[in-house]
Amino acid sequence: MSSSLKPLRWGILATGGIAETFAKDLLRDPSTRGVSDVNHVVQAAASSTSADRAKAFLKEVGAPSSAKAYGSYKELVSDPDVDIIYVATPHSHHYQNTRLCLEAGKNVLLEKSFTTNAEQAKVLVDLARQKGLFLMEAQWTRYFPLAINIRKLAAEGTLGDIKRMYADNAFGDDVEKKFDVKHRMVNPDLAGGALLDLGIYSILWIFQLLYHIQPKDKRVKPKVSSIITPEPRTGADECTTIIMQFATGAHGIATTGLRVGSDPDGKHSAGPSIKIQGTKGELQIFPPAYRPTQYRIIPNVAQNSTLEYKEVTEDIPGHGMFWEADECYRCIRDGKKESDTIPLEETLVMMEVMDEVRKQNGLVYPEAIETTDYPRDL
Ligand SMILES: NC(=O)c1ccc[n+]([C@@H]2O[C@H](COP(=O)([O-])OP(=O)(O)OC[C@H]3O[C@@H](n4cnc5c(N)ncnc54)[C@H](OP(=O)(O)O)[C@@H]3O)[C@@H](O)[C@H]2O)c1
User: Fold this and answer.
1) Quick check: helix, strand or coil at residue 273?
2) Residue 162: closest CA among 218, 91, 112
3) How far apart are CA 342 and CA 354, in angstroms?
4) Across the chain, what does the average pLDDT equal?
5) H-type alpha helices, the chain
6) 190 plus 307 within the same structural domain
7) Beta-strand (E) ranges in 196-257?
8) Residue limits of the GFO/IDH/MocA-like oxidoreductase domain (predicted)?
9) Do 304 and 169 belong to one domain?
10) 3-state DSSP: the chain helix, strand, coil percent, rounded to 5?
């Protein structure tokens, strides 16, 4: 596939599971998703362990043979031919790795959760602004046509006044069997636990409707009340429930967990995992919250709603991570330093909410991954 458009030359920092999925999506022909104004190139990848690992990764994702393989992140950020770096390390490492990229003058797309705490997030945002670099949290779900459409219909008042939302993103795993105590999902040294890994999706869905589409004066940090149950072996959060009250008065109930799931049989038998409840009706989204393909609208008959019952299913031509990459392309092409769909200010408020949940429940990570000191070897 060749394109006459100026390429956006990506560097992939880390060679784990999501880096692979993202790089494969990046290499998909944009026309398969009806897009003709982007040109993504995988320029290089770096592994913290060896150049051979990076080489194997590039082969696995089908990158062109010209792509460079680096055995350290420092080499990647020094490559003058890389325009933007996708950071896909565990969240514990996001601050150090992203700071490395920004200090080297690189634009960054940073996996969720942005950092381990809001203080680190603020340092990165300030640094990107000071250096005139593009920075965005990889909240890929927001760029799905389905999510864009739901924000639009909610903003147009289709559901009436939104009074309440429930959002769940939980996996229902056999925790001890699936995750060794060193695994990033449960290991506090890697900022493990449900909140930062899965709960961010429950929070982002609620924020899209009760914060993002609201008038500016209503976009303030919500009141937060929360409970956490720790994972018995490591103390990371295993089950977390957050109640938020937004400036509109609307309530948002965000839940997440490792041991109980949003979709226990994988067949949607448990129903939707997200409910947007307005005075005219309710919009329900089926799991998984991070990669939704199906929703329905149910009228509120008690309030003589003129809404009609409707079910919508949308196909995704791939995993769906290319839409956020397309946003990066367009922002950088147009000289924008952040995305309107996930403004850095909103990322900071979501990080503050998660900080508050942790504070209310005494959940702290090791100092090495909470600090804003840089550089630190992790
Ligand atoms: N958007 C999504 O749908 C989605 C899905 C899953 C995960 N994520 C996010 O993506 C990030 C990575 O998740 P993942 O599932 O890809 O994790 P993973 O499979 O464990 O991969 C993480 C990679 O980070 C690098 N790394 C550097 N230092 C590390 C350390 N001390 N321990 C472990 N890995 C280290 C490793 O690659 P090299 O050292 O070879 O570079 C490793 O392969 C997390 O922030 C997670 O929240 C997003």
Assistant:
1) coil
2) 218
3) 17
4) 97
5) 17-26, 51-61, 73-77, 91-103, 118-131, 145-155, 175-178, 194, 200-207, 322-333, 344-360, 367-370
6) yes
7) 223-230, 237-245, 251-257
8) 150-283
9) yes
10) 35, 20, 40
Model pLDDT, residue 2: 67
- Integer Cα distance of 181 and 193 in angstroms: 11
DSSP states of 294-309: EEEEEE-GGGT-----
Cα separation of 115 and 102, whole Å? 14
Note whether 93 and 218 are same-domain residues. no
Give how many domains the chain has, as a whole number: 2
Ligand 1 pocket test: pick from 89, 109, 182, 376 the residue with the most ligand atoms within 8 Å of its Cβ.
Answer: 89
Contact 209, 162 (CB under 8 A): yes
Q: What tens digit of pLDDT does each residue of 257-266 get?
A: 999 999 999 9
Indicate the SS3 state at residue 119.
helix
Distance 198 CA to ligand 1 centre (A): 14
The residues facing 251 across adjacent strands are 164, 245
Domain span at residue 173?
A: 145-313
Distance 96 CA to ligand 1 centre (A): 14
- Cβ atoms 38, 30 nearer than 8 A: yes
185: CA distance to ligand 1 center in Å?
A: 10
184/291 same-domain check: yes
Which CATH number characterizes residue 162's domain?
3.30.360.10
Work out which ligand 1 atom sits closest to the CA atom of 290: 3
Ligand 1 site residues (CB inside 6 A) read 14-19, 47-49, 53, 88-91, 93, 111-112, 138, 140, 184, 190, 197, 290
In a domain, 278, yes or no: yes
**Ligand 1 centroid from CA 146, angstroms:** 26
Looking at residue 236, the DSSP 8-state letter turns out to be S
Please tell me which residue, 78 or 304, carries the higher pLDDT value: 78
> Tens digits of per-residue pLDDT, 307-338?
999 999 999 999 999 999 999 999 999 999 99
Q: Is the pLDDT of residue 1 over 70?
A: no
Burial class (CB in 10 A: 0-12, 13-18, 19+), 271: exposed
